[in-house]
Amino acid sequence: MTERIEGHGGELALAALRAYGVREMFTLSGGHVFPLYDAAHKTDFPIYDVRHEQSAVFAAEAVAKLQRRPGLAALTAGPGVTNGISGLTSAFFNASPVLVLGGRAPQFRWGSGSLQEMDHLPLVAPVTKHAETVFSADDIPRAVAAALTTALTPHRGPVFLDFPLEAIFSVGDAELPAGPQLSPLEADPDEVASAARLIAGAARPVIIAGSDVWTGDAVDELRAAAEALTVPVFTNGMGRGALPPEHPLAFAKARRVALSNADVVVVIGTPLDFRLSFGDFGEAQVVHIVDAPSQRAGHVQPAAAPAGDLRGILTALADHPGDRVDHDDWVAQLRTAEDAAKARDAEEMAAETDPIRPARIYGELRKVLARDAVTIGDGGDFVSYAGRYLEPAQPGTWLDPGPYGCLGTGMGYAMGARVTHPDRQVCVLMGDGAAGFSLMDVESLVRQKLPVVIVVGNNGIWGLEKHPMRAMYGYDVAADLQPELRYDRVVGALGGAGETVAKATELGPALQRAFDAGVPYLVNVLTDPADAYPRSSNLA
Ligand SMILES: Cc1ncc(C[n+]2csc(CCOP(=O)(O)OP(=O)(O)O)c2C)c(N)n1
Ligand SMILES: [Mg+2]
Predict the structure, then answer these.
(1) What is the number of the ligand 1 atom nearest to the C-alpha of 481?
(2) What PANTHER family does UniProt report for this protein, alphabetically (predicted)?
(3) Is 187:313 a contact under the CB 8 Å cutoff?
(4) The pTM is what?
């Protein structure tokens, strides 16, 4: 039997949101969305508020990424929504099921110049899977349910609804939506079988697994497929940690050796974009396994490209009935390269330099981070080093900005991570440049008792831009920041705490204090401005 609900637009929206597993709202106040607050307040639905709307959307995205369920941001009409657009775009690139609910000027006098009157849809449509204005309270539950179904259907992504003032403030009634009912899309079995034959028949296959493997809850199936076919696995994005680092098929450092010698490269649940040399692996054949046909690459002709439910595809690979070529020598060759690279990294992570190099920070961090710690990267070179030196031990613990590469995710992601995991370590690795985008939201974290640790790699420059610009032009402009700035004092002024570290030997104790603090704590590490992350392409 279907249940009917009645109430004002905010109450109708919240009832539908609950049915879809939404458990909190991130927001920054605005009268246009008061009914959403009223509904939440009356029913003890948690509201977390921020100091810039970008943080609300990033927080919602972190919840979506970590919990694999919809994250919600409520933004007021006009500037509230426009401030959220970088967050929506990041969610779009990351396939994160984020719902942004926007306020909207009243429809009945549209065009007369109401406060904050603007049509959001043309702005958000290109970066959402669905964007719609809902004109009556009665229609809100249907619209919320349809939007969330779209957001959760692979290939996932953000959705947007806005409610004209009179729609959200007026009373209506509707049927309570049943909640998500998604039927997995089964990939073409012939295409899956041909992918399996290619991998099993390859002499030197490699798997690269990305975020959709985690989001699609296919981590166990990935491991089973890799083990059944004995294929070395590299990961990126939310796929990191899918195989624990000690697993015999888990690799991270030997990527260059692997990709330049592989004869079949299997890319699963991540696009063939700049992070993967646009899918060009020389002579190697490419198998691209995606969660929806829309994700097949237009610029590459893979040898096989099964599209559909990743669990189903990976299970079929694991169950491949045909012969397999022995890959043991290949795995051993990569293990030798991996071990050599690890030994080099270990030296760098222990280096006693003055000023401190970023590698040493990660060396010290590795000693204090728990296996289930959530680490968040927001910055340039400092975060590239994080990617290199930190090895997530579990999937769903590593938050990078993804291929959109938007600076400013830091405090929003931290808020979403802390709300998700109240008892785990949450550690933000932040460039000093990146700090400028969201550090004010430490105030939100302090006020709402959401402690996190922030480690700033303070080189006094926009390092990832300064070094390439110098290499290209022999000079640089617009690339300097105030050297040795006391970001720890900013956090102190906002009600948290922190300290500045200039000597490598002081790092360990400072990090201990940070994780014990129980309030947002910033460790401001003065790092070597001459240190540039070595990259093959100098453009970012
Ligand atoms: C919103 C946004 N603005 C600008 C950039 C371009 N950008 C990428 S990395 C970077 C430098 C980051 O500097 P910092 O956070 O200090 O890290 P560092 O490279 O110095 O370690 C910039 C400006 C971007 N990716 N996103
Ligand atoms: Mg910097």
Answers:
(1) 16
(2) 2-HYDROXYACYL-COA LYASE 2, THIAMINE PYROPHOSPHATE ENZYMES
(3) yes
(4) 0.98
